[in-house]
Amino acid sequence: MEPKFKSQHEKLAPLPTIINEEEEEYEVKEVRKHRKWSRETQYLMHWKGYRDEYDQWIAEMGLPHVKEAIEDY
Q1: N or C of the chain: less Cβ packing under 10 Å?
Q2: Is residue 11 part of a domain?
Q3: How many whole angstroms separate alpha carbon 41 and alpha carbon 35?
Q4: Which domain, by its residues, includes 32?
Q5: Are strands 28-37 and 17-18 parallel, antiparallel or unpaired?
Q6: Whole-model pTM above 0.90?
Q7: Are 51 and 57 in contact (CB under 8 A)?
Q8: Is 73 helix (H, G, I), strand (E, B) or coil?
Q9: What average pLDDT does the structure give for the chain?
């Protein structure tokens, strides 16, 4: 069934950036929140080109390439 409104069309998300031959990395638009979880700090990441429902909690250790986004937060 065809969507009735322009806003109902699904926009495709961008592909991840390839940082080497083995790893994909998505670009962070912003860090939205942080929390302590089992002795570690996690950050709620909002990915560039994705809607809010794709935001993810990621442990600080798993974020080697987003130090600038964390500092901006």
Answers
A1: N
A2: no
A3: 6
A4: 26-73
A5: unpaired
A6: no
A7: no
A8: coil
A9: 80
Residue carrying structure tokens 């600080």: 60
Structural domain count, the chain: 1
Helices marked H in 1-73: 67-72
Would you state the structure tokens that stand for residue 52, as one six-digit string?
């809010």
Is 21 a member of any domain? no
CATH value at residue 56: 2.40.50.40
Domain for residue 42, yes or no? Answer: yes
Q: What is the DSSP string of 1-23?
A: ---SSGGGSPPPPPPPEESSSS-
Contacts of 45 by beta carbon, 8 Å cutoff, 6+ apart: 28, 31, 32, 55, 56, 57, 58, 63, 66, 69
pLDDT at 43: 93
Greatest Cα pair distance, the chain, in angstroms, is 48
Backbone angles phi, psi at 22, to 5 degrees: -110, -20
